[in-house]
């Protein structure tokens, strides 16, 4: 594998970790907002946070298992 | 609140008014401005030198060091971005040199690293983000660049495209946080050991700091080069 391909792979992987964090935090705040709006505490917070974390995890696995070449 | 990365000697200057009623200027901003002035002066000096002496001589001189550095950077960027890397070389090399010297300034006594300040690193991250997106739009056009996010998946790739947009949005944040945290922690550790015992004890940490400063400048530049390559590549290059 060339250096360029390796740099590209690591750049995407290091960014994926921040995507996971952003989705988890985004899910938490979206769920909290929707819970307060519709009075469904704490179900939507739990659902959105779980969805955010799951999506983030799927994204990390997708990026990590991508072809490095 | 006392800030570790503030320039302490700034408070000692007699002609500067101090007190709560005056606006506090962070030391990193002063160092940032000084670095910019030095960069402009160095540019003028090197340009003048090139007019009189194009072929470098055999001894170690400023012009030879700059020549080797710029040549090395050029090779690294062209290898990462590809043949068209020459076009993006000035911006990425400027980023590298600015971050490299900013990082090193933090290792000097009574100085501060502008890159240990979150405003500088986020500014650099946003500059890189704007640059590679503009280059992507210039290369593909607005519609072509937007299609680029679908990564050849078509309408089925909406979720992937949305996550790709999230990953684009967090890139300046990740660039900024990575550089800020590394520089802040490195200089805080050196400062703590310096306060503990100023003689010899900080030397191994200063040597470690030299490595960290170089690697962080390299990481920022290489990531920007990779992002430029990803924004400007064509489907056939996948």
Structure overview:
The complex is a heterodimer of chains A (69) and B (238). By secondary structure, chain A is an all-alpha fold. Helices cover 84% and strands 0% of the residues of chain A. Chain A has two helices and no strands. In chain A, helix 1 (3-38) runs antiparallel to helix 2. Chain A starts with a helix and ends in a 5-residue tail after the last helix. The model of chain A has no long low-confidence stretch (mean pLDDT 89). Chain B is built from six helices and no strands. Chain B is globular and about 65 Å long. Chain B is an all-alpha fold. Helices cover 70% and strands 0% of the residues of chain B. The model of chain B is unreliable at 1-7 (pLDDT under 50). The relative contact order of chain B is 0.13.
State the gist of this model.
With 69 residues, chain A is an all-alpha fold.
Structural class of chain B: mainly alpha
Specify the overall morphology of chain B.
globular
Give me the count of strands of chain A.
0
Oligomer: heterodimer
| Number of separate strands of chain B | 0
Q: Residue ranges of chain A: pLDDT <50 for 5 or more in a row?
A: none
Structural class of chain A: mainly alpha
Kindly estimate the percentage of residues of chain A that lie in beta strands according to DSSP. Answer: under 5%
Biggest sheet features of chain A: none
Keywords for this entry:
heterodimer; A: 69 residues; mainly alpha; 0% strand; rod-shaped; B: 238 residues; globular
Blueprint of the fold:
The complex is a heterodimer of chains A (69) and B (238).
Chain A: H1 3-38, H2 43-64
Helix pairs in contact in A: 1-2
Chain B: H1 27-52, H2 62-81, H3 85-105, H4 118-148, H5 158-196, H6 203-232
């Amino acid at each position: 594998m060339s250096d360029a391909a390796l740099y590209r792979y690591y750049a995407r992987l290091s960014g994926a970790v921040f995507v996971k964090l952003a989705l988890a935090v985004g899910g938490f705040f979206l769920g909290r907002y929707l819970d307060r709006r519709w009075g469904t505490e704490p179900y939507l917070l739990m659902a959105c946070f779980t969805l955010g974390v799951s999506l983030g995890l799927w994204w990390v696995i997708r990026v990590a298992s991508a072809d490095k070449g | 609140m006392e800030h570790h990365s503030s320039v302490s000697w700034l408070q000692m200057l007699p002609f500067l008014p101090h007190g709560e009623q005056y606006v506090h200027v962070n030391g990193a901003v002063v160092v940032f401005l000084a670095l910019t002035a030095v960069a402009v002066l160095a540019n003028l000096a090197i340009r003048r030198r090139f007019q009189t002496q194009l072929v470098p001589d055999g001894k170690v001189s400023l012009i030879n060091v700059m020549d080797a550095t710029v040549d090395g950077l050029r090779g690294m960027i062209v290898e990462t971005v590809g043949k068209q890397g020459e076009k993006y070389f000035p911006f990425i090399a400027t980023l590298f040199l600015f971050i490299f010297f900013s990082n090193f300034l933090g290792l000097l006594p009574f100085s501060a690293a502008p890159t240990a300040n979150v405003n500088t690193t986020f500014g650099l991250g946003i500059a890189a983000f704007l640059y590679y997106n503009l280059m992507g739009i210039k290369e593909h056009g607005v519609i072509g660049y937007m299609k680029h996010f679908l990564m050849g998946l078509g309408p089925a790739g909406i979720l992937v495209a949305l996550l790709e947009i999230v990953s684009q949005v967090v890139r300046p944040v990740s660039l900024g946080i990575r550089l800020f945290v590394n520089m802040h922690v490195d200089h805080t550790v050196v400062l703590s050991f310096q306060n503990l015992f100023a003689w010899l004890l900080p030397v191994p940490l200063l040597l470690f700091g030299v490595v960290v400063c170089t690697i962080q400048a390299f990481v920022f530049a290489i990531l920007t080069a990779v992002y430029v390559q990803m924004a400007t590549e064509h489907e056939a290059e996948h």
